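Objective 1b. Sequence-to-structure analysis of Quinol oxidase subunit.
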Amino acid sequence: MTTATAAAAASSYKNRPIRQPYISNALDVAGRAGLAAIFLISGLSKLGQYAGTQGYMEAMGVPGALLPLVIVVEVLGGAAILAGAYTRWAAFVLAGFSVVSALIFHADFADQVQGIMFWKNIAIAGGFLGYLVHGTGAWSVDRQLRKV
């Protein structure tokens, strides 16, 4: 085997999709669970720290009256992603939410932590764009509804 042949074989191996449905579906669920956890935990913690969260929003120039909407978006959106229900819609909403919250709450690049939080939100939005484009796997409510 020549170096060129070995390089071509390695390249084709790296770029091929995972063909085992069980592994692919399990990874899809793991990805959804990771993204959903961020929003479920955040939304539920806002309920427990309602007054403090409302005050923080107002200090950042966002009306505190929007907090119930924020909680609903985070909790219902996270639950939808976790279940794989209305995945494309939920991914669209949460991607937009992530970008908007990055711009409003984390755009202070003089503060290293806020800069990291900004790019974390942008990365999360990128993850949601994958679900927006490709949908979800077989282990989801969306897929089960398509069978009916």
